[in-house]
Amino acid sequence: MIRSNTALAILIVLILILFWIYLSHKTRIISIYLRPLAIFIIVSVAIAGGGIVSAEVTPNPAPLNNITSLPSATSGDPTPANPPLLTAVAQPSNLTDFVDDQQALLKLGKALFWDMQLGSDGVQSCASCHFHAGTDNRSKNQISPGLLASLKDITFQVGGGANYQLTAADFPFHKLADPNDRTSTVISDTNDVASSQGVFYSVLKNTVPGQAVDLATSEPDPDGFQVNGINVRRVAPRNTPTVINAIFNKLQFWDGRAKETFNGVNIKGAADLSAKVYKATKPKQLTAVSVSLNNSSIASLVTGPLLSEFETSANGRTLPEVGAKFLRKKGQKIKSLRPLGKQLVHQQDSVLGNDSRSPRTGLKTASYDQLIRKAFKKEWWKSKSIIQVDSNGTPTILAKNDDGNESEEGQTLPANQFSLRDWNFSLFSGLAMQKYISTLVSDKTPFDKFQAGNINALTVQEKSGLTVFVNNAANGGGNCNTCHTIPEFTRASVRRTTGVASTDSSDPLINNPTNGFFGNYGVRPASDDPGAGNTTTSLFKAPALRNIGLTSPYMHNGGMATLEQVVDFYNRGRGDDGGSGAGVLNLTDAKKADLVAFLRNGLTDRRVLLEQAPFDHPQLFIPNGHPGNQSSVTSSGNTNGTPAATDQLVEIPAVGRNGVTTPKPNFLE
């Protein structure tokens, strides 16, 4: 490095001397001889510059040459001791059977993901729980009782009630007298979960075309999300995982219930033989067809939250009804919902900027119809026929609209009748949001630069932490890479599980370590939450760790607030579930600090931290609990049944491709 700098300095001095000579003696002869000499020097400078670059780059940095914390080899990962750089997951192999325009698909997906009109209340979007590094940093009204326990528990133990403001003192949920000794006195323990608030409990009457808020009846919350008889927003029963890098997961959700094969309708994949979408084989002929798209667990996932009475939906809503809300037109009486009609879109948004109406809300594109028509092939949305759902739930095809129009637009449809576009909304929203989420890849962390050869990308402490991460306990490490395998930092990735038997089976126990699922791992007793297993063998997916410094709280129950608490849990040999635990790691305080530094800083992509493209986004208003506390709230004055609490909304401003200058605070900061 020193020699390269010296050589460069000498060359620069030579250039300056020759330039001075040229200015002093502007003769043709000198110019003739100086020209090739100057070219030689310039080339030499370039080579020297390249020498400096190469002097800073060392292929295969030493800590990645000596990995002893290894999972078993698979056909997708035959040499886990020599991990590759992070590479993109393939798209569905038959995507072009459905999609005409990938850019239009991306626009549709980003708009739908952030659109508050998607929720039954006209407030909840998918992004409402995934707005901060792909997850959620709210801390008020973020507790859910033990709803998934074998004996359902609706008692709030943390804070004593819903709408509680969490504090650092509440964590970890399994608190020991000595955090380094799992056999020490248990100070406190709870089966509560720190998660994300969603909708108020209500029962759907129907969706209304062109209306953001669904018609629904507010009823007493059956799971205890009330304060003095007033409903508060419900909180999901598992901690919210990040959507950033979720495209690398073979299966989605903590329990893997969103399958890798998208059937166009729901989360169940190829196991659901009854899942059908409709295809226009002729203008007046619709045919029910089964579809199958591989590499599409994100598309499967999307269909779940849109109907969840915890996340975005009134109880009883269907995806065709969501489609009717966005897509159907009743003549001139009702206008379609404008994409992002309640939110500002930054003029420099990396995907939607050219379509922004700023300073007005929404996109220039007046309806989701237009985006769907541009993105998808006609046979999935263009038809004159109507699909009527009978009282027993059976669909019947009605041939209508012989007025010469190309589709059913202009007709007034009863609540139980749907256009082809309405019916296939599950297909459209799943593939579109998957396309958007597939762009949320954070592959520019300091670790990635280090792995690519820049040995200065990590600090000395972070390098030491990486060594702890990749080595097993016998070699002084933390055995982390076994489950959180590099470069995806999860053993549950598409790459690692290539060649593993299909996980679309209805047998939950197929979700095993081969697929990155681990049973009885020590976080909570299996009776609290079976995950993908049962009440004696709980199974949960090993989550990916990129940007983990931004995504607190941790674990499927959100029961740890800091990375230090997570490292203490593993270092003492797990066992918070009351089981025998595992081998104690015996990491020194210095090694634990090094490991935390690597996780917190070495795995944080600065683009995620500063919300730079592709992590920029439209404006969003998120519920942040309710004015008051766990003992008292005020009613909003709603007239549709059981009183519901007044919302306390917080604005997440629109951000363009260049991001922000000051990072947003993390959980409990």
Automatic annotation (TrEMBL):
Record's compositionally biased regions (Low complexity): 628-642
Keyword Translocase annotated: no
Signal peptide: none
Domain Cytochrome c per the UniProt entry, residue ranges: 460-603
Region of interest called Disordered, as start-end residue ranges on this chain: 620-644
UniProt-listed PROSITE patterns: CYTC
Statement: the UniProt record of this protein carries the keyword NADP: no
One annotated GO molecular function: peroxidase activity
Transmembrane segments: 6-25, 37-55
Principal cellular location given in the protein's record: other
Organism superkingdom: Bacteria
SUPFAM superfamilies: Cytochrome c
Keywords, sorted A to Z: Heme, Iron, Membrane, Metal-binding, Oxidoreductase, Peroxidase, Transmembrane, Transmembrane helix
Subcellular location: Cell envelope
Protein name per its UniProtKB record: Cytochrome C peroxidase
InterPro entries, A to Z: Cyt_c-like_dom (IPR009056), Cyt_c-like_dom_sf (IPR036909), Cytochrome_c_Peroxidase/MauG (IPR051395), Di-haem_cyt_c_peroxidsae (IPR004852)
